[in-house]
Every structure is written in C-alpha cells, then in structure tokens.
Design brief:
Blueprint: H1 8-21, H2 27-39, H3 42-50, H4 56-64
Helix pairs in contact: 1-2
Length: 69
C-alpha cells in the first residue's frame, strides 16, 4: 500500500475492509501498526517490491543460489 503512495485514510479503510472480510484478522493489531506502515518511505516500499516484477523462475534460481531477488 505504501508502494502505491496511499495516504493514511486509504490504508486504514483497506485494513478495515480486510478485517471485516476475514474474522481471523485483528483490527486492533492493524490499528497498532498503522503508524509503522506510514513510516515506510514510498521509494523504499517500491524498492522492496521490485524483485517481484522479475520472472518467478529467475527469483527461484537467485534464491537457490543464496541471493535475494
């Protein structure tokens, strides 16, 4: 959500929707992490997800070699 540069309100609404859709999710726990989520820089979030754009077989090979893809 941070990689998409969503604001606090949008992230809170999505979190609420996820907790309503799945009773195993804890809204209080999500609320407790909202400040932490918002502290993540958008560029850092995008960089963290960049590897997911690589082909799955490539990521698996890099992981098998002990790297981080």
């Amino acid at each position: 959500m941070r990689a998409l540069d969503l604001d606090r309100e949008a992230i809170a609404r999505l979190g609420l929707a996820l907790t309503e859709a799945d009773p195993r999710r804890d809204i209080e726990a999500f609320a407790d992490t909202l400040d932490t989520i918002m502290a993540v820089d958008v560029a850092d979030a995008r960089a963290a997800l960049a590897g997911l754009r690589l082909p799955a077989d490539y990521r698996a090979a890099v992981q098998a070699l002990g790297g981080a893809a």
